[in-house]
Amino acid sequence: xxxxxxxxxxxxxxxxxxxxxxxxxxxxxxxxxxxxxxxxxxxxxxxxxxxxxxxxxxxxxxxxxxxxxxxxxxxxxxxxxxxxxxxxxxxxxxxxxxxxxxxxxxxxxxxxxxxxxxxxxxxxxxxxxxxxxxxxxxxxxxxxxxxxxxxxxxxxxxxxxxxxxxxxxxxx
Amino acid sequence: xxxxxxxxxxxxxxxxxxxxxxxxxxxxxxxxxxxxxxxxxxxxxxxxxxxxxxxxxxxxxxxxxxxxxxxxxxxxxxxxxxxxxxxxxxxxxxxxxxxxxxxxxxxxxxxxxxxxxxxxxxxxxxxxxxxxxxxxxxxxxxxxxxxxxxxxxxxxxxxxxxxxxxxxxxxxxxxxxxxxxxxxxxxxxxxxxxxxxxxxxxxxxxxxxxxxxxxxxxxxxxxxxxxxxxxxxxxxxxxxxxxxxxxxxxxxxxxxxxxxxxxxxxxxxxxxxxxxxxxxxxxxxxxxxxxxxxxxxxxxxxxxxxxxxxxxxxxxxxxxxxxxxxxxxxxxxxxxxxxxxxxxxxxxxxxxxxxxxxxxxxxxxxxxxxxxxxxxxxxxxxxxxxxxxxxxxxxxxxxxxxxxxxxxxxxxxxxxxxxxxxxxxxxxxxxxxxxxxxxxxxx
Lengths: 172, 443
Hints:
The complex is a heterodimer of chains A (172) and B (443). By secondary structure, chain A is of the alpha+beta class. In chain A, 38% of the residues lie in helices and 16% in strands. Chain A is built from five helices and four strands; from the N terminus they run H-H-E-H-E-H-E-H-E. Chain A has a four-stranded mixed sheet, with helices on both faces. Chain A is globular, with a radius of gyration of 15 Å. Helices cover 15% and strands 40% of the residues of chain B. The longest helix of chain B has 17 residues, at 57-73. Chain B contains six helices and 31 strands. Chain B starts with a helix and ends in a 5-residue tail after the last strand. Chain B is mainly beta and 443 residues long. In chain B, the strands form seven sheets. In chain B, strands 1, 2, 3, 4, 5, 6 and 7 form a seven-stranded mixed sheet that branches. Chain B has a four-stranded antiparallel sheet with strand order 10-9-8-31, with no helix packed on it. The interface between A and B is large, with 37 and 44 residues.
């Protein structure tokens, strides 16, 4: 609860527009790629404000996906994490919690451990790109928080993920 | 003799495949029945217990029903409907007309009487071996308060089961589990406790935070579990009587989960994730420092103590996939015990010490299985889209586990099965259910 509350406050403080707490476990926070950001006036806090969490979540992409039972960051994942690292190095007031998740094909406690591996793989990658380690915490939800609920690979692929959730400022 | 024969086959079906070398020497036909898993449930008659006081009629009927349900629920006994009875048992003290019970092929007869004085309840029963025309054991009486009537019914059923099978009973026991509501992507979980048969559910936590995998203490007075209350998985201990809970110490920046009590009820083992690596640690539930028991770069989790406390079985993917290992309780070199195809997880040592129950994943299916502690004689008891997390009945003869159905409407519920793979049945809970942990027999 406190985490959600923090994020809500943060987004509100930035003058919102952005969907609150986008895709924390919810729908489509998937990497939109930078292409979605068009011209026109930049609305502070919106997805076309490059300093906003909304931009981080939607334009850069807040999550990376993993192969079955793997925790190695993929090539596609590296592109997204490079974007995340750059953003975090620019927007130094933010910290983040990296959430690791697994699909349902596994035992509960093993999947918590597997999610921890995935979250840590993302954290280590971001640290290797210069983000200070004390800005990045990790948590694993195992198979407890799928975003897709079908029982086939199309859903499983989206559930095997690590999501970088921006949180309160370093001084906050 | 006929009754004795049935007694034997009932006991063997329970012990079955596992009863070992002594049986291999016994006569052929009996053994063949067992390995084929064929058993005819033993027919019993249970006339409604006599009400010895005027106001005991309602409880007498309810208690009789619970005793019958306990026995029938094992799959080893079959109740003969009352409308088939020739003899009526009008008095607990009256002599038994064996011929009347023989005529309807009741091999066991259970009679009882219930009396109520204020809120005090007394239940007594007798068990008769109809075909040998004799009482089996002597009559027993249980006393308590009227609100404990279910427990007294379970105690009667435990005594009957125990006399006929030669095994300990398991009906007077409870299960702590995770009660679930909501769709898969918005699931709400809370801890709940109930009688082994699903009666008397009480909720121990609210659903504001995810809770996982509760485990009873060795005497059933406390429960260890994992909660995300702080936003991170941490270990809690809950006192069953007072429903007070407290979080155990943990190091900042780590995640703790998969806690289990040692047989001494004071020490615990659990998994700790640090920098993406998960190992097994031990600590005292009262506080103090944690000791590391494994230190490998792989995942080590789901520990379970041997009943004598000397060893720990756990799962590790150090070989490249999830497999089962046994190490000394203080840590040290581990021996791999699972070698079949597929992955093995969630090992749980039987309270009798003879077997290890586990979850197996192979070719897209999940199974609950058992193996000897050296990994031999693996036997799969179930198969489905997702079965996991076995827990043992106090007598080590029945296993309860979680079964989750496939697809968008996927739902978890509790099932039980006996170790011969027979008698698979759902355990009804008001909501969805997962992660059961069976208590010892209540005191």
